[in-house]
Amino acid sequence: MTTIGLIGVGLMGRGIGENLIRKGHGLIVVAHRNRIFVDELIALGASEARTPRDLAERADVTLVCVTGTPQFKAIAEGDDGIYAAMRAGKTVIDCTTGQPAGTLKAAAEVETRGAAFADAPLARTPVEAREGRLNAMVGAHDEVFAAIEPVLRCFCENIFHVGGPGAGAHLKLINNLMAMGQAALIAEAVAACRATGVDLGKLYEVVSKGGANSGIFQMIMKGYLESGALDGLKFSLANAQKDLGYFVDMAMNAGITAPMGAAVHNQLATARAVGFEEGVVGHLVAAALAVNFGGSAK
Question: What pTM was estimated for this model as a whole?
Answer without folding.
Answer: 0.95
